[in-house]
Amino acid sequence: MSGFGPGDPFLADCPARLAVELIADKWTVVVLYGLSKGPVRHGELIELIGGISRKMLTQTLRRLQAHGLVRRHAYAEVPPRVEYELTPLGATLIDPIHMLTEWARANGDAVLDALDADPEPVAHGD
Amino acid sequence: MSGFGPGDPFLADCPARLAVELIADKWTVVVLYGLSKGPVRHGELIELIGGISRKMLTQTLRRLQAHGLVRRHAYAEVPPRVEYELTPLGATLIDPIHMLTEWARANGDAVLDALDADPEPVAHGD
DNA sequence: AGGCTAGGTTTCCGATAGGAACCAGCAGGT
DNA sequence: ACCTGCTGGTTCCTATCGGAAACCTAGCCT
User: Fold this and answer.
1) Which residues from 25-84 of B have any strand D atom under 7 Å from their CB?
2) Using CB atoms within 10 A as the burial measure, which of B82, B91, B109, B119 is most buried?
3) For residue B110, what is the domain's CATH number?
4) Which helix (H) or strand (E) covers residue A90, if one does?
5) Which of chain A's residues have a Cβ under 8 Å away from the Cβ of B50?
6) Average confidence (pLDDT) over A95-104
7) Can you give the pTM of this predicted structure?
8) In a domain, A101, yes or no
9) CB pairs under 8 A between A and B
10) Confidence at B124, pLDDT banded by 50, 70, 90
11) In whole angstroms, what is the distance from residue A94 CA to residue A66 CA?
């Protein structure tokens, strides 16, 4: 069991780990997925993503923006219009995100089946 | 802007969405990464993954086990030995997880640079 | 004037994460 | 025989987070 070197996302402080924590988040993945096909408005994302609140959407987008993955474009119109899109750096995430969502689409049922079949994983003495 | 259909992880209740929420989690990704090279002991994971506590590790592993992604093997020895490994279903996650961690390794620095350069994303009026 | 729109923030409260401390069970040293 | 240590797990307690709903801004329309 070696082959893990420095730069692996195991070290708590290394940039790789921080990057994982940035995107390995319930809403973040779905938001990035929503952005993966081009610029989207705030309201579109709200309608697209079932269950997200304005607060969490804004918060997630802000965090991604602060980390250079998302660009925000506010048009000085009225009513206001704000579009979000992936930066070039953010676009490099499209493939990983799509692999994840593809996996989820393909295996979501299997995962639920397993949960249904195994209501009691084990309780501290096998 | 369409092309998103049913089965996409957008619907709050669909299995794909639940599957995303299962793995899109700070510790889950790192734990799956730790499991991706073969059976590992609880204590090994603790040492491997910087910053994780026993509680969060156990909790994460239990959840993955309940969803059929991880198998737990407790040997009746003393001192106790418990090994965890991916199930075949869990193994289908290796590629997506590795894409994520590869992305993190490649872009972690860029993400931190952006954070450093952009300490103030925007504050509600562009 | 009042209401509508769209994006964002604030407030409040229940749920969760997370660390520290504790527990079980047995082998081995003394 | 007792005390200690090794390993995995759980319990307790608190700081933080998530989420719903209300409120805010600013201009156009009626």
Assistant:
1) 41-43, 46, 54-55, 58, 61-62, 72, 74, 78-82
2) B82
3) 1.10.10.10
4) helix A88-91
5) 10-13, 17
6) 95
7) 0.89
8) yes
9) 221
10) very low
11) 18
